[in-house]
Q: What sequence folds into this?
């Protein structure tokens, strides 16, 4: 029995170490893509690219928080998840405000830049999502990380479709529609993470954690 417990503990430690390494890789990829996309978004005047660049930055911060609380108690991790859920909701709201602003201005983004950067961003996010796939069913903290990676990949596909739409119609409507979609997706994910985190903060869970 003792040997089995030791083996289980060693396996858990190994999994935690692997998860930590993957988070560092994901953080580096997201910071790099934030720099690339924010520059491209400003040049292309694309609200969906700017939204995606801010999403990369938010995810990098998300991974940083996850690294900080990794190995701590369930209550601490759940509280960190609530903070991340609030950040995700704020990000989604900000995107919606940007979309409304661009609608009022009537600007038309540069479709080729949107398409090329969208492809690069999609490849980066698919890599991160693939690395973190095995940890998608963990606690609220791990789930928030996975949802961010999944949302990013979906957002990149949407940006590429928006680029085709802008190219075909000559208007900024497709860009605005995608930005709105990304904002709603971020708010939806925030609600999911917050619900799970609140469940983990129930008195029974807090007692079992101590």
A:
């Amino acid at each position: 029995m003792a040997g089995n417990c030791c083996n289980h503990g060693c396996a858990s430690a190994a999994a935690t170490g692997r998860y930590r390494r993957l988070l560092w890789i994901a953080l580096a990829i997201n910071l790099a893509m934030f720099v690339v996309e924010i520059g491209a978004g400003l040049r292309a005047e694309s609200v969906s690219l700017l939204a995606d660049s801010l999403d990369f930055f938010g995810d990098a911060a998300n991974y940083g928080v996850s690294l900080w609380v990794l190995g701590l108690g369930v209550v601490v991790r759940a509280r960190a998840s609530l903070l991340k859920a609030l950040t995700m909701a704020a990000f989604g709201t900000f995107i919606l405000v940007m979309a409304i602003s661009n609608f009022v201005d009537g600007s038309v983004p540069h479709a080729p830049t949107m398409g090329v950067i969208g492809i690069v961003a999609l490849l980066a996010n698919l890599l991160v999502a693939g690395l973190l796939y095995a940890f998608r069913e963990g606690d609220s903290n791990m789930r928030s990380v996975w949802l961010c990676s999944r949302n990013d990949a979906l957002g990149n596909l949407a940006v590429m479709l928006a680029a085709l739409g802008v190219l075909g119609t000559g208007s900024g409507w497709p860009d605005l529609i995608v930005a709105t979609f990304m904002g709603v997706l971020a708010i939806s994910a925030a609600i999911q993470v917050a619900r799970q985190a609140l469940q983990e903060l129930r008195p029974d869970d807090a007692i079992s954690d101590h």
Q: What stands out?
A: The CA atoms of residues 58 and 104 lie 26 Å apart. The chain has one domain: 13-201. The first helix runs from residue 2 to 44.
